């Protein structure tokens, strides 16, 4: 057990390390100093309280989409539709947030979040329904619904819901629907607390509940699950609903904390980055928090890098891509690690 | 040309077990050598080392006295070693010849496959050893026994002079076993050496010139002379203690009819798989289904347990009609031990404890308000592991870490502990060791004694004959004949299984 746990830590950590090294080599070959670049990124991400809060802000949507992707992945469903579910949650949350419901802050916040989550969940449920009842491959249906949702929301804020001004966006949300800041002069809001709670809830759900157990079983061996009397279709629907709901909540929190309104095309590929976050986080809720922070730090660090040096920020994207490649090739990592162990053994043998 | 193969002081260590522990073993051409042992004793592992599929941690392999080192089966094949695996690796939509030559095709002008030459060569090989199959037949039209011959031919075509057969009789009818043994004798007469991996004692005594017994990775005996060996001797050597080989049920059952199946029909891909199958089982009765695999037995089990929907089916338990999917049938007292524990029975990446409650995890004692009760689950797992003798440090280990026999015990324990009214059990001891087999047979008979109805489906005819009160033979989706178990011979069953039976 411990051995396995250790192993599940080693691969992501080593993958990340390897990605940093390889990207560093590429930087050096291109004539940039990797040490300077990395130290700028690092201090940009963690150098001051402000930098740390900004890193957490960048990490917030990534942790959420990572969690959402992970829940469906545990049932062996590839929900590439987190991006669309995020948009759905965001637009619904923005609409609820714009409307004066005569509710106190806490309730308006709750209704806004729940509305966004429910909307994203329904999109996920729809995908699950297509899968369970018509055998539609969820990779295709999610990719296609992404187009529809992203463009439809864009239409909404370009025409019927457009606020005055040049930008395609809704009206600003009411103060009662905006997530309050934790510290007065920093942008970080209580969203981060909500996200932490969601991560804990997801962990509990997957590890401890009946439905979570069934999701894992269906993901690992669908046939055996069905033979054992688990209702596979129902389990898939729940997994897709929850996955979509987390995606929707991600979008809701983003508009409630950062944008304060729905802006067309506001997502910087958060949904897709979630896949990388989940991969580096080893499909584990706590791992996803950490890997989300790592990716958030890279993103935030890249902004600083952009401002302070002439090193192209694209290198950060290279690191991200390399991490995903290495994490998804655990055999490669194993091989490299074993090679090291083998050499050491050999040397000891000779000495 | 291989005259002699020696494996000297071979060791293979896996993270948790030493699969092969300082074993020395030799085989000669023109000899049939039986490698006996329980599952997990290291037989297959030892042979995979000889075949180049695994690298030993220690030890040496000598061919004709020369040390060799195999990096992959390619190296061992080049030296004339061939292996026929338990699971066939054939493409059903290709012909016998195409399957045999794949990878080593004779060429015309280095580019085109010389199919005429290939067919001629393969047919020559078939005739030489009296394999009696057609080189141009499609593999999907062949019986299991014939497919096995194609696998043997594949090795011979590549120049094998030493053949390793891994559990070759596991899937064959008695008649096919006889045919295989004839082929083995022909091969032996032509100077080919054969190593047969098996845990079937009767067959070992029937065919082998020499016997080596492995137990827990160690070589227990190496016998040249089989003269005075009996099945009981060999069984004791394999297991290390006295074993009850024939656990059998006693006497005809007089109880009332409890479980009834009427007019069960199923069509798949437009082909009828089950044709109007009807039978009943009394309380405290084991009904065995004998048949060559692929005659509808698997589908029958899946239909009765709600995993496939039949075109037509009436099922009654205690006179009351029951129906539904697997979930609801389980709730109505139908227990199911599926035929393939890895594909259908277990989630091997999950822990032993979790596998022990799989399917019953929603029961009150394991789950309250949708949250699993870890404490109860673990204590249930601990006591079940003890009761069923599942060899593991604790219930948190992954099911994948266990041997086949111990994995099967999980599947059996899970269902038996629920005390189902009707048990549908398929291939309960496939690929498990003698010790686990004995145990599992006792469990099944325990249910029988408790007055439950048991439907036993197995390709192992000995098992069906030993455990059943009545035996129904399935052929091409129909029950062609039902016998009282004590009034029928294996030979007669074999005839009905292959469609050759007649009422005379």
What's the quick description here?
The complex is a heterodimer of chains A (351) and B (504). Helix content of chain A is 76%, strand content 0%. Chain A is an all-alpha fold and 351 residues long.
Topology (elements, then pairings):
The complex is a heterodimer of chains A (351) and B (504).
Chain A: H1 2-29, H2 34-46, H3 49-74, H4 82-98, H5 105-134, H6 138-158, H7 191-208, H8 210-220, H9 222-227, H10 232-259, H11 270-280, H12 285-308, H13 314-327, H14 330-350
Helix pairs in contact in A: 1-13, 2-3, 2-12, 3-7, 3-8, 3-10, 3-11, 3-12, 4-5, 4-6, 4-10, 4-11, 5-10, 7-8, 7-12, 8-10, 11-12
Chain B: E1 4-13, E2 18-28, E3 32-37, H1 43-50, E4 58-63, E5 66-68, H2 73-78, E6 81-84, H3 96-101, E7 107-108, E8 112-113, H4 115-128, H5 144-157, E9 162-166, H6 174-189, E10 193-198, H7 201-207, E11 210-215, E12 218-223, H8 231-239, E13 257-268, E14 271-282, E15 285-290, H9 297-304, E16 312-317, E17 320-322, H10 326-331, E18 334-337, H11 341-345, H12 352-357, E19 367-368, E20 371-372, H13 374-388, H14 404-416, E21 422-426, H15 434-449, E22 453-457, H16 461-467, E23 470-475, E24 478-484, H17 490-497
Parallel strand pairs in B: 3-10, 3-11, 6-9, 9-10, 15-22, 15-23, 18-21, 21-22
Antiparallel strand pairs in B: 1-2, 1-4, 4-5, 7-8, 11-12, 13-14, 13-16, 16-17, 19-20, 23-24
From the coordinates shown, what is the CATH architecture of the largest domain in chain B?
3-Layer(aba) Sandwich
User: Secondary-structure element order of chain A, as H and E?
Assistant: HHHHHHHHHHHHHH
Structural class of chain A: mainly alpha
Number of DSSP-assigned strands of chain A: 0
Compute the separation of the termini of chain B in Å: 52 Å
Measured by DSSP, the beta-strand proportion of chain A falls in under 5%
Kindly report the average pLDDT value of chain B.
89
Total domain count of chain B: 2
Q: Largest protein interface?
A: A-B, 20 and 30 residues
Largest sheet features of chain B: 6 strands, mixed
User: What is the CATH topology classification name of the largest domain in chain B?
Assistant: Rossmann fold
* Individual helix count of chain A: 14
Helix proportion of chain A = over 70%
Strand order of the largest sheet of chain B: 6-9-10-3-11-12
- State the distance separating the first and last CA atoms of chain A: 34 Å
* Approximate strand percentage of chain B: 25-35%
> What is the CATH H-level superfamily of the largest domain in chain B?
P-loop containing nucleotide triphosphate hydrolases
Care to count the β-strands of chain B? 24
Overall mean pLDDT of chain A: 91
**Radius of gyration of chain A from the CA trace?**
22 Å
């Amino acid at each position: 057990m411990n051995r396995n746990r250790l192993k599940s830590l080693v691969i992501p950590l080593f993958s990340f390390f390897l990605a940093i090294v390889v990207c560093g080599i590429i930087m050096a070959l291109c004539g940039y100093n990797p040490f300077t670049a990395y130290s700028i990124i690092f201090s940009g991400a963690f150098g001051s309280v402000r930098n740390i809060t900004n890193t957490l802000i960048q990490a917030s949507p990534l942790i959420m989409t990572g969690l959402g992707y992970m829940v469906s992945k545990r049932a062996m469903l590839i929900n590439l539709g987190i991006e669309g579910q995020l948009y759905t949650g965001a637009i619904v949350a923005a609409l609820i947030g714009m409307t004066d419901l005569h509710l106190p802050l806490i309730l308006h916040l709750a209704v806004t979040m729940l509305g966004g989550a429910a909307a994203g969940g329904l999109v996920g449920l729809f995908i699950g329904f297509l899968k369970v009842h018509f055998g539609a491959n969820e990779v295709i249906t999610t990719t296609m619904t992404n187009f529809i949702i992203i463009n439809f929301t864009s239409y909404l804020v370009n025409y019927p819901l457009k606020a005055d001004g040049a930008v395609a966006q809704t009206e600003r949300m009411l103060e009662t629907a905006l997530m309050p800041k934790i510290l007065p002069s920093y942008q970080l809001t209580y969203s981060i607390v909500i996200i932490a709670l969601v991560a804990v809830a997801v962990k509990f759900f997957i590890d401890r509940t009946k439905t979570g157990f069934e999701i894992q079983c269906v993901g690992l061996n669908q046939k055996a699950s069905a033979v054992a009397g688990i209702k596979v279709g129902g389990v898939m629907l729940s997994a897709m609903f929850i996955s979509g709901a987390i995606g929707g909540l991600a979008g809701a929190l983003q508009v409630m904390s950062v944008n304060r309104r729905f802006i067309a095309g506001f997502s910087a590929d958060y949904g897709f980055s979630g896949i990388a976050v989940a991969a580096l986080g080893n499909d584990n809720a706590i791992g996803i928090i950490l890997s989300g922070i790592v990716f958030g730090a890279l993103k935030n660090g890249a902004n600083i890098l952009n401002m302070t040096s002439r090193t192209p920020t694209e290198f950060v994207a290279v690191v991200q891509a390399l991490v995903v490649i290495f994490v998804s090739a655990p055999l490669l990592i194993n091989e490299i690690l074993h090679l090291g162990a083998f050499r050491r053994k050999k040397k000891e043998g000779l000495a | 040309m291989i005259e002699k193969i020696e494996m000297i002081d071979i060791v293979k260590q896996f993270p948790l077990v030493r699969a092969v522990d300082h074993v020395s073993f030799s085989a000669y051409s023109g000899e049939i050598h039986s490698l006996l042992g329980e599952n997990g004793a290291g037989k297959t592992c030892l042979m995979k080392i000889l075949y180049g599929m695994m690298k030993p941690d220690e030890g040496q392999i000598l061919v004709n006295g020369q040390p060799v080192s195999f990096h992959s089966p390619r190296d061992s094949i080049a030296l004339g070693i061939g292996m026929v695996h338990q699971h066939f690796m054939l493409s059903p939509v290709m012909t016998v010849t195409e399957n045999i030559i794949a990878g080593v095709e004779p060429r015309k002008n280095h580019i085109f496959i010389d199919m005429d030459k290939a067919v001629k060569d393969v047919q020559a090989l078939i005739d030489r050893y009296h394999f009696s199959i057609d080189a141009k037949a499609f593999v999907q039209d062949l019986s299991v026994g014939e497919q096995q011959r194609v696998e043997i031919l594949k090795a011979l075509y590549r120049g094998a002079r030493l053949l390793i057969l891994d559990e070759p009789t596991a899937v064959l009818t008695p008649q096919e076993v006889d045919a295989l043994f004839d082929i083995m004798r022909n091969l032996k007469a032509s100077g080919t050496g054969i190593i047969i991996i098996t845990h079937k004692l009767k067959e070992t005594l029937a065919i082998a010139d020499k016997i080596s017994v492995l137990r827990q990775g160690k070589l227990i005996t190496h016998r040249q002379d089989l003269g005075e060996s009996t099945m009981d001797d060999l069984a004791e050597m394999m297991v290390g203690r006295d074993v009850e080989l024939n656990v059998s049920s006693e006497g005809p059952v007089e109880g009332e009819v409890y479980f009834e199946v009427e007019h069960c029909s199923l069509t798949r891909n437009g082909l009828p798989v089950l044709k109007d199958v009807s039978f009943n089982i009394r309380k405290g009765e084991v009904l065995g289904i004998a048949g060559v695999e692929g005659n509808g037995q698997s589908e029958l089990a899946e239909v009765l347990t709600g995993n496939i929907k039949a075109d037509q089916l009436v099922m009654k338990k205690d006179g009351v009609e029951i129906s539904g999917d697997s979930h609801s049938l389980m709730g109505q007292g139908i227990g199911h031990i599926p035929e393939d524990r890895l594909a259908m029975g277990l989630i091997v990446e999950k822990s032993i404890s979790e596998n022990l409650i799989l399917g019953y995890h929603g029961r009150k004692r394991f789950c309250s308000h949708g949250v699993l009760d870890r404490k109860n689950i673990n204590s249930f797992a601990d006591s079940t592991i003890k009761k069923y003798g599942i060899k593991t440090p604790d219930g948190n280990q992954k099911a994948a870490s266990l041997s086949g026999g111990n994995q099967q015990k999980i599947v059996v324990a899970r269902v038996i502990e629920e005390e189902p009214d009707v048990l549908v059990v398929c291939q309960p001891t496939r690929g498990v060791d003698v010790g686990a087999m004995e145990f599992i047979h006792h469990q099944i008979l325990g249910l029988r004694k408790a007055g439950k109805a048991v439907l036993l489906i197995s390709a192992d005819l000995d098992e069906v004959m030993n455990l059943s009160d009545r035996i129904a033979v399935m052929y091409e989706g129909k029950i062609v004949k039902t016998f009282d178990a004590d009034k029928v011979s294996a030979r007669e069953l074999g005839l009905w299984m292959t469609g050759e039976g007649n009422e005379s």
